[in-house]
Amino acid sequence: MAEQASERGRGAQWQHLDLRRINWSWLGTVPFFLFACAFLVLPSASLVIGSFQDNEGNFTLQNIADLGQPSIVNAYVLSVQVSGVTALLGTLVGGLLAWAMVLGRLPRFVRAFLIPFSGVASNFAGVPLAFAFIATLGRVGFVTVLLKDLGFNLYDKGFNLYSFWGLSATYLYFQIPLVVLILTPAFEALRPQWREAAESLGASGGYYWRSIALPILTPALLSTVVLLFGNAFGAYATAYALTGGSLNIVPIMIGAQIQGDILHNPNLGYALAFGMMVIMTLVLVLYSWLQRRSARWLQ
């Protein structure tokens, strides 16, 4: 009798359960989480595990210890230098473009052209970008030959597209437009009332920018630098297609360890990628913190 009463009680509970009250909206996130798990979580976990294994699958710390080799340390240093230079120069040039477009009273058609172009150029990278620069500024590129005919030889003056500064200039092609897209809303968020109030109290234009505008824009500028650093730090196809592996940056070294015939050591390549993951994680944490700081002023 007690069992029958219990079954009748459970049946009554199911009868009173209204499926329409269940929140099914979370089902819309299932494809995203499946995609993230398949192409982000599982590969990252495999990479981390492989960093602590030898070729036979045994646990080892040798791969992590090998990251201290001079050639690997130099690769990280060179990658940080390229990323840092392009992040700072990209933020400076792109910030000036965004300022001129929003506050410099440029013609409307300039903005109508610059914003769509920035959206396209910020995603133009890899082999097509490398080929475009080789065809333009290579040793027999269009601009190089044109300047040579005019009596100015770029390569005799020390320029080399396949060097540190050549790679940095190539990266700036997609870094600068990205800055324009990021900082344009930040400049638009500077309220005219702030400048009017400062001027009504006798502040000059320089004082306004030094004491009011720049402190407000600083978190956005710093977060842009951090984002551009991470964007350049992980770039592989552009550098490899442009330099052919002559520049020893970390992404190219990872490719040589995983796919190369001479330096074939996949587990060391995993360790190199693990080191990049650690750096990128720190970059993302710093970027998130700076974004929260800048959001207080951009609301």
From TrEMBL:
Alphabetical list of InterPro entries matching this protein: MetI-like, MetI-like_sf
CDD domains linked to this entry: TM_PBP2
Compartments, as annotated in UniProt: Cell membrane
Sequence ranges assigned to domain ABC transmembrane type-1 in this UniProt record: 76-291
Membrane topology: Multi-pass membrane protein
PANTHER family reported for this sequence: INNER MEMBRANE ABC TRANSPORTER PERMEASE PROTEIN YDCU-RELATED, INNER MEMBRANE ABC TRANSPORTER PERMEASE PROTEIN YDCU-RELATED-RELATED
Name of the protein in its database record: ABC transmembrane type-1 domain-containing protein
Species in which this protein is naturally found: Herpetosiphon gulosus
